[in-house]
């Protein structure tokens, strides 16, 4: 804080940085207490006498040295890079020792000395004034020891994990502001560093060829910035509502060739606007879908860039352009927004208000994941009425998430997971229908474009498409609203597009600046290639506009799916392109 004082635009947020940061501070403290606590239980049960205090002194000294060294490195690193110490920073440091040493000046040395002196002074006096005074052996009977073990273990586990919600504690949990440095101050440096060191940004699993060959194969399928884009809006300052549907696939949309009667409202809204009948998700999980839509960045297979805050902070995001144009920006989700680091991603990418499970009263209707979507939708409408205009707002639905539970009627029953999925899809459809009907009554609707897309593919309701099959990733993607030009209302586009393309499309709605999204085309680009890529932890695939598709099993290292006319003569070349694509994507992930 002291070293970066001038970077704090809002000095009043510093207090809240420490306040919100207490969760990680407590977690780290309990991690450190766990070993002495277990030793004390062993001492009470088996040793039954005092032991040398040097054991505890040595244990205290070890993290003191480690944390002092981390701080000595972190302070100048953050000042220079704007990110905290991480595995990536350490790796870069060891790889460029000469560059690091040449960057050290006298001021850094003085600061390092002061840091070390402060650490050891505080550790010395804390140990002698607190630890020595209270950490003394005291006999307990067996029942007292058991009570101590159970109660102590409960407290330690609670604080280490950060509670008992579905989302375990991570740095995103203490993010609270759209000011990045305030969030960084809230994050406990040592906790985050240890978390990062235990993660594995593994060796590129997609090394199929030289990078020169891979770049040559993929280059024709990436944006060049020279294409003509059709204008579909009647204003260059629209309100934008992005609706991310949790796990809804084309198989429950009659308009997309799926089942009847599940999504009648969404089907109707499709027909009111412009929709893409052959849109494909980038992956099979929410964390990857969020990045695909908001940053136009493909899935990284066994990795997820949103889990690495220093990496995802360097990604471009669509919220940033709206924030730069003085839009009101917001994100609504009924679950815990810290899950998958969604909250930190939003705050660091231009979204100034994040509304999640914690913003609703305890009496509000919830399922196992959080507040019901219709409750969130009502609050969102109230807030948008009060927001300055124009606005950019994201509504990320929740209920259509496994285990697909509802507090009320299951439209299609609940005997099987597939029927439960249909029922929660029906709930989501009804909720969105009501939400849009209410929005149409607002004055701001006539200047608003709604963009609806699913976050990822799903195995339900058909339960017959594996991760290698493109139908697993076939999703809805459509737009409607008062800002849509009349000639685009009711249009159906049958060409293959990707979920990744949402990012550049939303970017181009409001600015002529070149899109920063390397892998994302504008959906309304005239001369773009129509191809989509998809992957999971263990598969990758490609589907073309002419219907050829190839799915590859990374574990078995073999083609697991293929389709299309004359596919036998094309599948090897298509697979080579898909492999080259993900080889480059993972390289980019590692370089962030």
> β content, as a range?
5-15%
Helix content: 40-55%
Count of β-strands: 13
Tertiary shape: globular
Poorly predicted tracts of residues? none
Class based on secondary structure composition and strand pairing: alpha/beta
Mean pLDDT: 93
Q: Helix segment count?
A: 19
Distance between the termini: 25 Å
How is the biggest beta sheet arranged? 9 strands, mixed
Question: What does this protein look like?
Answer:
- The protein is an alpha/beta fold and about 600 residues long.
- Helix content is about 45%, strand content about 10%.
- It has 19 helices and 13 strands.
- Strands 1, 2, 3, 4, 5, 6, 7, 8 and 9 form a 9-stranded mixed sheet that branches. Strands 10-11-12-13 form a 4-stranded antiparallel sheet, with helices on one face.
- The two termini are about 25 Å apart.
- The model has no long low-confidence stretch (mean pLDDT about 95).
